[in-house]
Amino acid sequence: METGELNPNYYPARRAAAVVQHYLNTRYGSPYRWMFLGNVHNASSEDVTEGRKYQLELTIQEMISNVSGPCSAELLFPGAGTPQVQASCDWLLPNNTRAQEEAFYQQHRDSHNLVSGDRIPDSYGHMEPTMKPFWHLGGVASSFIMLEQSNQSTLYNMAQVANFTQLETEKDQLRFQYHVLLHEMVSQEIIHWKMLITWSPAEGVKVLQTDLQPKCNCEDPPDSIN
Amino acid sequence: MKGLLVFTALFVAVFGKETFQGEPTDLSTPVDIRVPNIHLQTVKAFLEAEDIQYYIMIEDLQVMLDEEQEQMLKAARTAAPRTTDDFDYSNYHTIDQIYAFQDMLVAENPSLVSKVVIGQSYERRPLTVLKFSTGGTNKPGIWIDTGIHSREWVTQASGTWFAKKIVTDYGRDTALTSILNKMDIFLEVMTNPDGFAYTQTSNRMWRKTRKPNPGSSCVGTDPNRNWDAGFGGPGASSSPCSETYRGPSAHSESEVKSIVDFVTSHGKLKSFVSIHSYSQMLLYPYGYTKTPCKDQNELHNLAKKAITDLASLYGTSYRYGSIINTIYQASGGTIDWTYNQGIKYSYTFELRDTGRYGFILPANQIIPTARETWLALMAIMKHTSDNTM
User: Fold this and answer.
1) Which pLDDT belongs to residue B20?
2) Whole-angstrom Cα distance, residue A83 to residue A77?
3) Helices (H), chain B
4) How far apart are alpha carbons A150 and A182 in whole angstroms?
5) Distances (CA, A) of B40 to B6, B45, B46, B60, B231
6) Which residue of A has its CA nearest to B237?
7) What residue in B sits closest to A192 (Cα-Cα)?
8) Spatial separation of the C-alpha atoms in residues A10 and B321, rounded to whole Å
9) Can you tell me the distance from the alpha carbon of B156 to that of B274, in angstroms, rounded to the nearest whole number?
10) How high is the mean pLDDT of chain B?
C-alpha cells in the first residue's frame, strides 16, 4: 500500500473519500439532504498502530440543493470494524432545509395515511415526485450500513430502494421499514439489506435495526404489500 | 348502525354486490363505491339524507379510462418506429426493438452499413455487429461494443445513438467522413443479449452471461473477466455465484469467443473500445497487472484529450488512467486481451453517473450521455486514424 501522498484520482483515495460521504449522510442527511462525493483534491495515508489512517481534502455535493463545498477529513480504517471518521464541512449547516423537512414531517406524521412504495427508481430511472424524499431517505439510511461495512477494498452506493413501508409514528419519529439494494463496486455484488429506520427534523435519521438478506441469485425482490 | 344497514341494503338491491370495492367491514372503515351515471343523483340524495359522509375520488371514471386508452395507443404507436428517424433515442428499448433498429438502419443505408453475425449467445440469440464501411478490402478497423454487462443500460442505449450518429455524420462531418474513408467501424450494441433479456424479464441488476455452471445453482460468467489476459490471477472470482466469476476457462463464453474469433480473423483492428457504466472513467490497460503497458504515455495523453472533449459539452467530469490504478485490479478483462493482441488504442469507458442513480440512469440522460461520450470516441478514433497507415 502506498504511504504518503496519494494520487487523488486513483482508487485508494476515492474509496476513503466515499466513506467520508457516508459518514456525512449519517450526521447530516435527511429526506431533503443527501450527500455525494465530488472530487478528491488531496489525499495521504499512513499506517498507524490502530490500522490505516487517511487525510483527505475533498468536495462534497448536496444532491437536492445542488450545492457543493469543501471538506477536510481524517479517517481510520481499523484492522476490523467500522471506519472512524472526523470531518469538517463548515458550509454544511442544517438550516436551509428546515421548511421542507418540517412540511414533510407534518404531512406524514399522522398515521392515517401510511405511505409505501417500491422500485425507487424503477428500471428506467423514473420515480413519482412524491417518492423522491423517500428515495433520499433510503439513501441516507443506507449510508449507515455502507459506513459500517466499508473498508479499503470496498466502494458502496445504494443501487435502488426495493421497497419501503411507513409504520406507525412512535415517540414523534416517523418510522419506516426499508429494503434496499446496495452496489459494492469492487466485488460488483448487489447486496440486499432490510432496515428499520426513524426520522424527524429534530432527531435526524436513525437506523434501529439492520438485516442482511441472503444472496438470492434469483428475481427481483417482491413488491411491498400495498 | 341503521344508516349502514340501510346503505348496504339499498346498494345490494339496486346495483348488485359488484359495485362495492371489498366487503363492508365495520363502521369506521371507509367503503369505495362506483356509481353509474344514471343513479348519481339518487345516490347523492340518499347519502345526504342519511347523513353519511362521502367524498368524490374520481369525478368521471370514463375520462380516466379514455386517457389510459390514449396512453396505450400512443405507446403502441411509438413502440414500432418505421424508420430510424422515428426511433426514440431518449428511451430504453427491448431486445427486439434494438434488433429491429439494427435491421432498419442497414435497410436505410445499404451502401454504408451491413450486419455481421459473429456468433450466438448461450440462449442462441444472434450476436450482431454493425459494420460501417465505405468499401474496399482489408481496411483497418475500429471496434466499439456496448452492453457486455447487461445491467448497464445506458450503454446499449448509447450504442443505438452512436449507430445513428455515424450514418448521419458520414458525408457531413469532415472528421468522421475522413475516418470512415480510411477505416471501417464495427459496433456491437447488444454484446450480452441473454443478460439483457434477463434484466428486462427478471432481474434488473443482472450483470453476467446466462450460461449455467455445472454443479452450481448459480448461473452466468462475468464476460469482462473471461478473456485470456491474466486469466486465473487475482482480480476475478473462481466462484460461479460471484458477479466477477471468470468462467471455467478463458473464452468459455460464446459472447466472448465470438469477438475473439472476429478480432483474430479480421487481423487489422487498430482501436478497441468497450463501453460500461457507471463511474465516469476512461481507462486503458492493464487491469491484471501493475506493470505499465508500453504505450502508457500515449494512451494517457489521448485519454486526457478525450475526456476534455467530453467535458466540453455539459461539464461532465471523468477520471482516467489504467484500470488497475483507477478502479481496481481486474484479471481476464477485455481490453487487456485486445491490447496484448496488438490493438494499441484499447480503452474502456465507464459512463454516467457516479453513484446517484448508478445502473438505473434516468432515460432523460441517455442522449446527453451519448452526445458527450461521442466526443471522446471521436478523439480516440481520430487519433487512431491519424496514426494508422
Assistant:
1) 55
2) 5
3) 2-14, 40-49, 61-79, 95-108, 153-169, 174-182, 193-201, 254-266, 296-314, 323-326, 334-340, 366-386
4) 12
5) 17, 9, 10, 11, 74
6) A187
7) B205
8) 8
9) 11
10) 91
Cα–Cα distance, A190 to A222 (Å, whole number): 16
In our burial notation (b when 16+ CB lie closer than 10 A, e otherwise), range A186-212 reads bbbbbbbbbbbbbbbbeebbebeebee
Query: What separation, in Å, do the N-terminal and C-terminal C-alpha atoms of chain A show?
Result: 50
Cα B128 from Cα A61, distance rounded (Å): 41
| Rounded Cα distance, B346 and B343, in Å | 6
**B286 Cβ contact list (under 8 Å, min separation 6):** B229, B230, B292, B293, B322, B323, B324, B336, B339
Name the minimum distance, in Å, from the CA of B361 to any CA of chain A. Answer: 5
Q: Which residues contact residue B322 at a Cβ distance below 8 angstroms, ignoring those fewer than 6 apart?
A: B283, B284, B285, B286, B287, B292, B293, B296
- When CB atoms are compared, the residue of A37, A159, A187 closest to B243 is A187
Cα–Cα distance, A152 to A143 (Å, whole number): 16
**DSSP state letter for B237:** B
> Between B192 and B42, where is the model more confident?
B192
Residue B373, amino acid: T
Residue B116 C-alpha cell reads as 455481421
Cα B84 to Cα B29: distance, rounded to the nearest angstrom: 54
Residue B28 makes CB contacts below 8 A (sequence gap 6+) with none
What does DSSP say about strands B184-188 and B141-146: parallel, antiparallel, or unpaired? parallel
CB contact under 8 A, B356 and A122: no
Termini Cα distance of chain B: 93
Sign of CA dihedral B161, B194, A121, A155: negative
Contact check, Cβ <8 Å, A37/B360: no
Residues of A in contact with B222 (CB under 8 A): 188
Whether residues B321 and A157 touch (CB distance < 8 A) is answered with: no
pTM of the model: 0.86
Q: What is the CA radius of gyration of chain B?
A: 28
Given a cut of 50, whether residue B14 has pLDDT beyond it is no
List Cα–Cα distances, B139 to B184, B277, B343, B385, in angstroms: 7, 30, 14, 11
Contact A42, A56 (CB under 8 A): yes
- Tell me, yes or no, if A123 comes closer than 8 A to chain B by beta carbon: yes
Give dist(CA A217, CA B96) in Å, integer.
Answer: 25
Mutate to test the interface with B, among A123, A126, A187 (most CBs of B within 10 A): A123
Give catalytic residue positions of B.
350
- ipTM for the predicted complex: 0.94
Task: Measure CB to CB from residue B92 to each of A37, A124, A157 and give the nearest one.
Answer: A124
Cβ distance A159 to B207 less than 8 Å, yes or no, reads: no
- Tens of pLDDT, residue by residue over A79-96, are 899 999 999 998 887 667
> Do B360 and A159 count as a contact with CB atoms less than 8 A apart?
yes
CA distances from B230 to A208, A213, B61, B331 (A): 45, 33, 63, 5
